[in-house]
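Whiteboard transcription, Tuesday session. T.W. wrote the C-alpha coordinates on the left side:
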Protein backbone atom coordinates (compact mmCIF):
# COMPACT_ATOMS: atom_id res chain seq x y z
CA UNK A 1 0.00 0.00 0.00
CA UNK A 2 1.40 3.40 -1.03
CA UNK A 3 0.82 6.02 1.65
CA UNK A 4 1.39 9.76 1.89
CA UNK A 5 1.72 11.01 5.46
CA UNK A 6 1.02 14.72 5.79
CA UNK A 7 3.76 16.61 7.60
CA UNK A 8 1.51 16.99 10.66
CA UNK A 9 1.28 13.19 10.88
CA UNK A 10 5.07 12.79 10.73
CA UNK A 11 5.55 15.40 13.45
CA UNK A 12 2.83 13.79 15.58
CA UNK A 13 4.59 10.45 15.22
CA UNK A 14 7.65 11.95 16.88
CA UNK A 15 5.69 13.66 19.66
CA UNK A 16 3.11 11.07 20.73
CA UNK A 17 4.26 7.46 20.97
CA UNK A 18 1.77 4.64 20.49
CA UNK A 19 -0.82 6.79 18.72
CA UNK A 20 -2.09 6.10 15.17
CA UNK A 21 0.43 8.55 13.61
CA UNK A 22 3.28 6.80 15.43
CA UNK A 23 1.93 3.36 14.49
CA UNK A 24 1.75 4.38 10.80
CA UNK A 25 5.29 5.73 10.96
CA UNK A 26 6.47 2.46 12.56
CA UNK A 27 4.57 0.44 9.92
CA UNK A 28 6.59 2.26 7.28
CA UNK A 29 9.86 1.67 9.14
CA UNK A 30 9.02 -2.07 9.27
CA UNK A 31 8.27 -2.08 5.54
CA UNK A 32 4.55 -2.78 5.97
CA UNK A 33 3.67 0.22 3.78
CA UNK A 34 5.47 2.20 1.10
CA UNK A 35 5.81 5.86 2.03
CA UNK A 36 5.61 8.47 -0.71
CA UNK A 37 7.18 11.84 0.03
CA UNK A 38 8.96 14.63 -1.81
CA UNK A 39 12.06 16.70 -1.35
CA UNK A 40 9.79 19.68 -0.66
CA UNK A 41 8.06 17.82 2.17
CA UNK A 42 11.39 16.71 3.65
CA UNK A 43 12.54 20.35 3.58
CA UNK A 44 9.28 21.43 5.24
CA UNK A 45 9.65 18.74 7.90
CA UNK A 46 13.24 19.83 8.62
CA UNK A 47 12.05 23.43 9.07
CA UNK A 48 9.12 22.44 11.30
CA UNK A 49 11.29 20.22 13.49
CA UNK A 50 13.75 23.10 13.87
CA UNK A 51 11.12 25.36 15.46
CA UNK A 52 12.12 26.21 19.04
CA UNK A 53 8.65 25.51 20.46
CA UNK A 54 8.76 21.91 19.20
CA UNK A 55 12.22 21.08 20.50
CA UNK A 56 11.00 20.23 23.98
CA UNK A 57 8.49 17.70 22.59
CA UNK A 58 10.66 15.94 20.01
CA UNK A 59 13.62 13.69 20.75
CA UNK A 60 16.37 15.28 18.61
CA UNK A 61 18.05 11.93 17.97
CA UNK A 62 14.82 10.46 16.65
CA UNK A 63 14.18 13.49 14.46
CA UNK A 64 17.73 13.18 13.17
CA UNK A 65 17.01 9.54 12.21
CA UNK A 66 13.69 10.36 10.51
CA UNK A 67 15.04 12.77 7.93
CA UNK A 68 17.74 10.46 6.46
CA UNK A 69 15.32 7.50 6.63
CA UNK A 70 12.93 9.41 4.40
CA UNK A 71 15.68 9.90 1.83
CA UNK A 72 16.79 6.27 1.97
CA UNK A 73 13.60 4.28 2.45
CA UNK A 74 10.72 6.30 1.00
CA UNK A 75 9.77 7.02 -2.58
CA UNK A 76 11.04 10.60 -2.83
CA UNK A 77 9.44 12.55 -5.65
CA UNK A 78 11.23 15.45 -7.29
CA UNK A 79 9.69 18.45 -9.04
CA UNK A 80 6.09 17.73 -8.07
CA UNK A 81 3.78 19.91 -10.20
CA UNK A 82 1.45 21.76 -7.85
CA UNK A 83 -2.07 22.73 -8.86
CA UNK A 84 -4.69 24.59 -6.84
CA UNK A 85 -6.76 21.87 -5.15
CA UNK A 86 -7.31 23.03 -1.56
CA UNK A 87 -8.77 26.06 0.17
CA UNK A 88 -5.38 26.24 1.93
CA UNK A 89 -2.61 26.66 -0.68
CA UNK A 90 -0.10 25.13 1.78
CA UNK A 91 -1.88 21.79 1.33
CA UNK A 92 -1.54 21.77 -2.46
CA UNK A 93 2.00 20.29 -2.54
CA UNK A 94 0.91 17.33 -0.36
CA UNK A 95 -2.17 16.74 -2.51
CA UNK A 96 -0.05 16.92 -5.68
CA UNK A 97 2.43 14.49 -4.15
CA UNK A 98 -0.34 11.96 -3.51
CA UNK A 99 -1.51 12.23 -7.12
CA UNK A 100 1.95 12.10 -8.71
CA UNK A 101 3.03 9.29 -6.39
CA UNK A 102 -0.12 7.29 -7.14
CA UNK A 103 -0.79 6.88 -3.43
CA UNK A 104 -3.51 4.55 -2.19
CA UNK A 105 -4.30 6.90 0.69
CA UNK A 106 -3.26 10.33 1.94
CA UNK A 107 -3.20 10.61 5.73
CA UNK A 108 -3.73 13.95 7.46
CA UNK A 109 -4.77 15.42 10.77
CA UNK A 110 -5.96 18.67 9.16
CA UNK A 111 -9.73 18.50 9.70
CA UNK A 112 -10.45 22.00 8.46
CA UNK A 113 -9.06 21.74 4.95
CA UNK A 114 -7.41 18.46 4.02
CA UNK A 115 -9.82 15.93 5.55
CA UNK A 116 -12.78 18.07 4.46
CA UNK A 117 -11.79 17.38 0.84
CA UNK A 118 -12.35 13.62 1.42
CA UNK A 119 -10.33 12.71 -1.68
CA UNK A 120 -8.07 14.07 -4.39
CA UNK A 121 -8.36 12.63 -7.89
CA UNK A 122 -9.84 9.44 -6.48
CA UNK A 123 -7.29 9.04 -3.68
CA UNK A 124 -8.99 8.94 -0.27
CA UNK A 125 -7.86 11.39 2.40
CA UNK A 126 -8.09 9.68 5.77
CA UNK A 127 -7.33 10.27 9.42
CA UNK A 128 -4.42 8.37 10.94
CA UNK A 129 -6.87 6.07 12.73
CA UNK A 130 -8.74 5.28 9.50
CA UNK A 131 -5.50 4.67 7.60
CA UNK A 132 -4.14 2.47 10.37
CA UNK A 133 -7.16 0.21 10.15
CA UNK A 134 -6.54 -0.09 6.39
CA UNK A 135 -2.87 -0.93 6.97
CA UNK A 136 -3.56 -3.45 9.72
CA UNK A 137 -6.29 -5.07 7.67
CA UNK A 138 -4.16 -4.73 4.52
CA UNK A 139 -7.31 -3.87 2.65
CA UNK A 140 -7.22 -1.23 -0.04
CA UNK A 141 -9.14 1.99 0.55
CA UNK A 142 -12.18 2.58 -1.62
CA UNK A 143 -11.26 4.60 -4.67
CA UNK A 144 -13.42 7.10 -6.39
CA UNK A 145 -13.30 7.47 -10.16
CA UNK A 146 -10.15 9.26 -11.37
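and on the right, the sequence the group agreed on:
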Amino acid sequence: MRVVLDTNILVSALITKGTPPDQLYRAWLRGDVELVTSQAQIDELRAVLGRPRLRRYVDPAEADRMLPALHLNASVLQDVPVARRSPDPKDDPILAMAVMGEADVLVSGDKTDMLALKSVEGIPIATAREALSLVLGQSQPPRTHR
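Someone added at the bottom: Residues 6 and 106 are 7 Å apart (CA to CA).
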